[in-house]
Design a protein that fits this description.
Oligomer: single chain
Distance between the termini: 41 Å
Largest sheet: 5 strands, parallel
Shape: globular
Strand content: 5-15%
CATH superfamily: Creatininase
CATH architecture: 3-Layer(aba) Sandwich
CATH class: Alpha Beta
Number of helices: 11
Order of helices and strands: EHEHEHEHEHHHHHHH
CATH topology: Rossmann fold
Length: 279
């Protein structure tokens, strides 16, 4: 299905799309260190490409990624950190104005996903739904990829794999030191997750992209057809269940081993202590 990019479009193209497929795709990113091997704007590049992949199935208008305003970024060079309230203001105002333009469905997809930002997005999108102005979904891509054990990482196997599938010319695995332990990768290289030198590959990246695009497109179609946020609430519930300690994820251990590459309780304690001290 055809879609347009807002910043490249003349007004009539936006009006035509609003009449045919009033769907807004809003990618959020960050300007943040992602190891020596990945681009500093990875989160926004990833989110915008995923929005475009979903829009190719569901139609609508893809907006440029919002790279400024992210909070919860890591303490590494060339990384911008902002107060949490700034991103809240951006999201709230963007949702209000998009609804005012006539978009019936708004998808805010964040490629940068500290828990506080994910919670804020869900809250603000639900608030818009309850107002009746438009239907909105606010999630990271990881809300849709638990079936392939992509729980999210930072410059690890999955983000590297996605970038290898999207923009292989921006990936240089040889720039990442070899032989680092999981804790050394975190503290020295800014890599949180499985070692991308050993595990990253474009096939996994393509699988993740296709899965996200298909699920988003299906949810948007239901929202448009039913004029309901039922499909969005199902995504929230599924995402919560996937990470809640229980049989489905070996009582949380899948999340620890797959997303963080931590396999011992002592390392888990050290991992989270470093994170708490630095975020």
């Amino acid at each position: 299905m055809d879609f347009i990019r807002f910043e490249e479009s003349r007004p009539e193209a936006v009006r035509e799309t609003l009449r045919a497929r009033p769907v807004a795709w809003v990618p959020l990113g960050a300007l943040e260190w992602h190891g020596e091997h990945l681009p500093l704007g990875l989160d926004g590049l990833k989110a915008e490409a995923l929005c475009a992949a979903a829009a190719s199935r569901a139609g609508g208008v893809v907006f440029p990624a919002v790279q400024w305003g992210a909070f919860g970024t890591l303490p590494f060079p060339f990384t911008f950190r902002f107060r949490p309230g700034l991103m809240l203001e951006i999201v709230r105002e963007a949702l209000r104005q998009l609804a005012g333009m006539g978009f019936r469905v708004i998808v805010v997809l964040t490629g940068h996903y500290p828990p506080a930002q994910v919670k804020m997005l869900r809250r603000e999108c639900r608030r818009l739904c309850k107002s009746g102005a438009a239907l909105a979904l606010g999630i990271p891509e990881t809300a849709l990829t638990h079936s392939i054990k992509y729980y999210g990482d930072h410059a690890g196997r999955w983000e590297t794999s996605v970038m290898m599938a999207l923009r292989p010319e921006l990936v240089n695995l040889s720039a990442l030191p070899a032989g680092l332990s999981v804790l050394e990768r975190q503290a020295r290289a800014g890599v949180m997750g499985q070692d991308p030198r050993e595990r990253a590959n474009p096939d996994d990246g393509r699988a993740a992209i296709d899965l996200v695009a298909e699920k988003l497109a299906a949810a948007v179609e239901i929202a448009l057809t039913e004029n309901s946020d039922r499909a969005f609430e199902e995504i929230y519930r599924s995402a919560d269940l996937a990470v809640r300690p229980g049989r489905a994820n070996r009582f949380g251990w899948d999340l620890v081993t797959e997303a963080l590459d931590v396999h011992r309780l002592s390392d888990l304690v050290r991992y989270f202590w470093w994170t708490v001290r630095n975020l």
